[in-house]
Amino acid sequence: MPSADAYLVLSAAMFSIGVVGIILRRNLIVILMCVELMLNAVNINFIGFARRFGELEGHVFPIFIIAVAAGEAAVGLAILIQLYRLRNSLNVDEARELHG
Amino acid sequence: MDDIASVIWLVPALPLLGALINGFRALEQPHAKKSRKATRLIALSATLLSALVATFYVVIPWARGGTANPLEVVYYEWLPMGTGEVTGGLISNFSIQLGFQVDVLSSTMMMIVCWVGFLIHVYATGYMSHEKGYTRFFAYFNLFMFMMLILVMGNNYAVMFVGWEGVGLCSYLLIGFFYDKTFAADAGKKAFIVNRIGDFGFLLGVFLIFSWFGTVDFTGVFAQAAANPAHFEGIATAICILLFVGACGKSAQVPLYVWLPDAMAGPTPVSALIHAATMVTAGVYMVVRSNVLFRLSPEAMAVVAVVGAVTALFAATIGTAQNDIKKVLAYSTVSQLGFMFLAVGVGAYTAAIFHVMTHAFFKACLFLGAGSVIHGCNGEQDMRKMGGLRRYMPKTHWTFLVATIAIAGIPPLAGFFSKDEILANAFFKRYTELGAPWSSLPLVLWVMAIIAATFTAFYMFRAYYMTFLGTYRGAAAAGTEASEPEHKGHDVIDEDTKLAPAHLPKADPFEHGGAGHAAHPHESPNSMTGVLAALALLSIVGGLVGPPLGAFGIHHPNPFQSWLSPILWPIGGEAFEFHHAPIAVEWMLILLSIGVAVGGIMLARAFYTDPAWSRPRAFVARFPALHRVVENKYYVDEIYQATFVRGTIVLSNAMAWFDTNVIDGLVNGVRHVTVILLGEGSSLIDRYVVDGAVNGVANSAQRGSTLLRRLQTGVVQNYALVMSGGVVLLVVVYLLGRP
User: Fold this and answer.
1) Residues 6+ apart with CB under 8 A from B575
2) Which member of A22, A31, A96 has the closest CB to residue B715?
3) Contact residues, A window 30-69, toward B, CB-based 8 Å cutoff
4) Does the beta carbon of A71 lie under 8 angstroms from any beta carbon of chain B?
5) Which tens digits make up the pLDDT trace of B613-669?
């Protein structure tokens, strides 16, 4: 079995990739995928600590996260589809109506 | 004595009550017909009851207890001031009380005021029956009695001053009784104002008394003065001269006499009561009351005597050239008051009061007789339009003649005794303290008085002859205006006599003509002639209480002098000395005064019994300028008008100018400056400071928000970046902060 540290490194790496992706990518679908990525990174983090300490919470909580992520993905995609229908583009830079 | 104390207040209170009742009745229905009978009843009963109480319940009971002990009844602590400390030799415990004093002097004055007052009230009920304002008249008349009684009954200078002012007020009200006539209203004002000038001096005198004696009570002041004469001698001169100024105003001496002749504009009973018998004698009363102070100061006495003698002579000369019968009597009053002050000035205090009494009798009789004459001649007052009234008005004629003989000073009528006593005292007095030549001053004054007495006899008999003897000249003047229409006491009389002839005892065969025409003269009703008879009787016998005993070798004060002697306190242990003189000199003086009186009468007879008046006319023709000056009363009124009156008006105009331009200008100027400074300044502050602050706040908020707005780019990824950056920061801080 890999050591607990490996799980944490993997989680950190995945999380960082997700953050960078949210900040730098313009395509809305890609941003959503990065959000999923971050969520799964957090899952792996939980598993890693569960393995290390032998606690069962580390297994239960990711189940919740998966469920929430699914719901959140559904809602996010619904919003994205409406936004695409409105302006026919998935470029996030164009959606800046809420600027000051 | 307690009984007296319990009733003495009735004496002034009853006339006051009468005045209030009649006053309210007069006010409630000013123009309605009120019951004159009720008015008469109220006024006469008030006066009569007051006189009876005064006589039988005050004076006689007190006198039985010994006349040397004055009775003081104190009612009320009027002005309590001070704490009783003595600072700098002056006592500062001072309170003025409201109290009455019964002593020889006040009881003498009370008797004169009450009884002569009552008689004149009776007369007035008949005299005023034709006039409007009957009730108002008697309200004022009773009020006067009240005030005069307060004056003579007071136990200190303050209460006396209340009465003093009060009689001045009543004098004003009664002189100006016919207030719709301008000259009457003016005369009332003149009387009051001239009186006030005198009162100023009086008050200053009272203030000095207070500051030097620490009290204004008569007993307190005189006791201190008598016990310590040397200490008070200096200030006594100032006090007495100031008090005398007040007496000059009230008792019509030179130079403040000018109101008295004008006061004849009032109804004749007013002239009789106020300006002959009582009010004008208040000054004499006050000076005699203060005799202790006057005796400390020969200088003041000399001033009083000189003023008195000058007034006596001056007024007597004016009286010889007057044609209005009331004016003659007015100047006669001024002259006789001069005699009274001459008496006081030479130390004959009892003689002055004696003359007050006898003068009250015969002068009241003369004035009321003149009123009867005027009434009978339907308002005519000019003697040149009278004459021969002896036939038409016999009762008036006889009483007037008696009073005229009395005033001329023919014994045994009243005027002789009092006048002779005054002249004798003037002749013998020497102001030893003043040194030669002033010590013989009384002799000069005696000469002036003798001349004045001659004139008195002359002008009084002139008046008598012009009025009562000869033929009636009034009928010849029918259709012409009376020579001095402005001096008629009551023009209303003519219309009313047509309406109410019932009171006239004689049926009048002639029609009363139109207004102002002199028709057949008629005698007056009994209410008037009865009083004249009573006063004439008093003029005959009133002098017998003061015979000149010295002429008969009796060196003892006569009954009147003994009666009044308790008020002449011993000063510094020395008792008051009545003058003594050799019998021969006394007789010489008596014969001389009778002689000048007879001489005056003879001269008047020579001049005026001739119906054509050839001798007077010749005299006037020879000295026209002199006659004009004297007839116009030496133009004194005109001089006063040109100097004091105009001066006051000029001064008050100047003050008014000053007030409007300088003072108001100052105030308005301050307003301008304030408006400019405060107005402009505050508008500047408001614009730049206040608004600046408010705008500044708004501006900074705006700029701040412009800056902060840049954070809201609307680009979601920016927000995500910032969030991530924050998380990294937190992690770093956490890692670094770990121990």
Assistant:
1) none
2) A96
3) 31
4) no
5) 778 888 888 888 888 888 888 888 888 888 888 899 999 999 999 988 888 889 999
Are B384 and B427 part of one and the same domain? yes
C-alpha to C-alpha distance for B487 and B654, rounded to whole angstroms: 35
Q: How many domains does chain A have?
A: 1
CATH at A28: 1.10.287.3510
Q: Does B710 touch chain A (CB under 8 A)?
A: yes
Does the distance separating the beta carbons of A99 and B713 come in below 8 Å? yes
The more confidently predicted of residues B518 and B627 is B627
pLDDT band per the 50, 70, 90 thresholds, residue B343: very high
Looking at A17-21, A84-88, B267-271, B495-499, which range is the least confident one? Answer: B495-499
Residues B348 and B411 in one domain: yes
The SS3 call for residue B388 is coil
Clarify whether residues B617 and B721 are in a common domain: no
Tell me if B13 is assigned to some domain: no
Look up the domain containing A47 and give its range. Answer: 4-93
Domain assignment of residue A12, yes or no: yes
In whole angstroms, give the CA distance from residue B232 to residue B216: 15
Q: How far apart are the first and last CA of chain A?
A: 53
Residues B668 and B618 in one domain: no
What is the radius of gyration, based on Cα positions, of chain B?
38
Predicted ipTM? 0.87
pLDDT of B395 above 70 = yes
B729 touches chain A (CB under 8 A): no
Is A24 an 8 Å CB contact of chain B? yes
| pLDDT on residue B164 | 93
- Per-residue pLDDT, B231: 82
Q: How far apart are CA B400 and CA B374, in angstroms?
A: 13
Query: H helices within B429-547, ranges in order?
Result: 441-468, 493-499, 526-541
Residue B581 pLDDT greater than 60, yes or no: yes
Question: Looking at chain B, which residue has its C-alpha nearest residue A16?
Answer: B724
- CA distance linking residue B299 with residue B310, whole number of Å: 16
* A58-62, B218-222, B455-459, B573-577: segment of lowest average pLDDT: B573-577
Q: How far apart are CA B660 and CA B52, in angstroms?
A: 59
| Domain-terminating residue out of B607, B628, B649 | B628
Do B326 and B431 belong together in one domain? yes
Angle at CA of residue B603, ends B309 and B342, nearest 5°: 10
Cβ distance B717 to A100 less than 8 Å, yes or no, reads no
Contact (CB<8Å) B711/A100: yes
B682 and B622 in a single domain? The answer is: no
Q: Which residues pair with B99 in a beta bridge?
A: B74
The answer to whether the beta carbons of residues B299 and B329 sit under 8 Å apart is no
Nearest residue of B to residue A97 by CA position?
B714
Q: Which helix (H) or strand (E) is B522 found in, with range? A: none
Could you tell me the sign of the dihedral formed by the alpha carbons of B230, B234, B236, B237, in that order?
Answer: positive
Query: What is the number of domains present in chain B?
Result: 2
Same domain membership, residue B451 and residue B328: yes
Q: Where is the domain boundary, B573, B603, B628? A: B628
Binary contact (B716, A95; C-beta < 8 A): yes
Residue B406 lies in a domain: yes
- pLDDT at residue B34, as a whole number: 64
Region B1-24: mean pLDDT is 86
Distance CA B729, CA B686 (A): 50
Residue B110, pLDDT above cutoff 60: yes
Contact at CB, A24 and B717, closer than 8 angstroms? yes
Q: Do B335 and B471 share a structural domain?
A: yes
Give the residue numbers spanning the domain of B691: 661-726
Closest CA in chain B for residue A26: B717
pLDDT tens per residue across span B141-167? 999 999 999 999 998 999 999 999 999
Largest CA distance in chain B: 155
